[in-house]
Description:
alpha/beta, Helix Hairpins, 15 helices, 7 strands, about 70% helix
Amino acid sequence: MIKLVVFDLDNVIIDAEAIDEIGKLMGVEEKIMELTKKAMEGEMDFKESIEERVKLLKGAKVDDIKKLAQELPLMKGAEETIQHLREKGYKIATITGSFDIIADIIGKKLNLDYIICNKLHQKNGLLTGKVTGPLVKKTKYEVLQELLEDEGFSFDECVAVGDGANDISMIESAKLGIAFNAKPIVKEKADAIVEKKDLREIIPLIEELEETCEVSLEEVLDKKKEYEDKLSATLKEREEFNKKAKEKKELRDELNKKVKENLDLAIKFKDKRNEINKMVEENKRLRNETNKKIRKLKWSSTGRKRLKLEKEIKKIDNIIETQVLDMKKENELVNRVNDLRRELAKIREDEKTRKKALKLKRLSEKYHENVVKLSKEAQEYHEKMLEQFKKTDEIRAKADEAHEKFVKFMKLASKKHEESKKIMGKIKQVNIEIKRIKSRMDKVDAAKNHKRRILEKKKAEEIYKLFKDGKKLTKDELLLLQRYKIV
C-alpha cells in the first residue's frame, strides 16, 4: 500500500526551473540555463553544477526572489493532483535541489507534508553566492531513504515523480517511479512515463498500482472461477427452459393440428345439417302446396246414393227393354233415366275429386314423413356438430395453455441468455484484469529486481569505502563486491 508520494519541484510541481528564473533577475540566465541543462541530462556532477550556478546569483535581493516565488506558475493539474492524493491519505513530499526561499513558499501554498531542499545563504538581504543543504552532498536516494526511515515507511510504500538526472536515484528505488515530461535518460529508468505537461496524468498510474496491490491474482482467479460456475449454472437453466419451451411448442402444434381436424369435422357436420335442413324445407314446401290443393277440392260423400241410382237406372232400363209401353209412358221413363244418369254422373265426378284428394293427402303425408325423418337426421348432425365444436374448444383451450407456457419458458430462457451474456462480459473483464495483473506483476518483479540490484550496488560501494578505510570484510560482503565487479 502506498503511503508517500515524492515530487521534484522544478518542472514538476512548478512549470519553471527556479534557479533559471532567479538568474533572469541578475541577467545571467543563459549561463545558468546551460549549467542546468548539463546537470539535468547527467553531463555534469550535480554538486558542482549547483555550486557554480549559485555563485552566479551572488548579490541577488532576497525580497525579489520571494516575490518571484509567489509568481512562479504551478504545473497544470498540480493543485488538483496534490489535493486528490492527500484526500486518499497519502503523505506528500518534495525533495528538490532547489532552494528554501522558493520551496518553502510553494510548499506552504500546496500544504505539502515534507519540504526537503537546499539553503541559499544571505547577508543583509542579499545572496552571498553560497549554498548548503542535504541535496548538495547527498543523492535524492539517500535523502529519501532517511525520510522513509524517520517516518517508518519503506521504498515499496513510496511513489517518486521527477524529470531530471538527479531524480533517477529516487525513481529507481521507489515502488513506482514516474518520469514526468522528463529527459531521455530518466525515461529509461522509470516504471512509467507521462509525456503530457499535466500532473493529473499520474493519478491513474498510482490508482492502478494500488489496485494491483489490493487485488491479488489469486483473488481475481477465484472471481473468474465464481463467474464460470455461475455461467455454467445459468446456461444449464437456459437449456432446461429451452427444452421445456420446445416440449410445449410441440404439444401446442399437435393440439392445434387436432383443433383443425375437429373443426373440419364440425364444419362437415354443419354442412350436412344445413344440406338436410334444405331438404326439410323443400318437403315442407311441397307438403304445404299439396295441402293447399286438397283444401281447394270439394266433394260429397254419396256412396249409397250412387248405388241406389245405379240400381234404379238398371231397373228402368230393364222395364223399357222388356215391356211394351205406350209412347207417353216410355218417354217418361226415358226422361227419368236421363235425369238419374245426370245425377249419377255428378256423383261419379265427386268420386274422382275425392280420389284425387285422397291421393294428394297420401302425398302430403309422405312429405310430412320426410320432414319428420329429415328433421330428426338434421338434429342428429346438429348435435354432432355441437359436440365437435365443444371438443374443439376444449382442445383449443389446452393448445392456448401450452402456448402460454411456451411463451413463459421462452421468456425465462431469454432472461437466462441475457444473464449469461452479462456474466461472459464479466469473465471477459476479469480476463483483461488477469492479463493486466500478470503484466503488472512481471513489470513489478522486473522493477524490484532492478531496484534490488541498484540497492545492492549502492551497498557494495559503501562496503568498498569502508574496506578502503580498513574495515575487515565478511565472506558475504566480499562476494557482493565481486558480484558488482568492484574488486
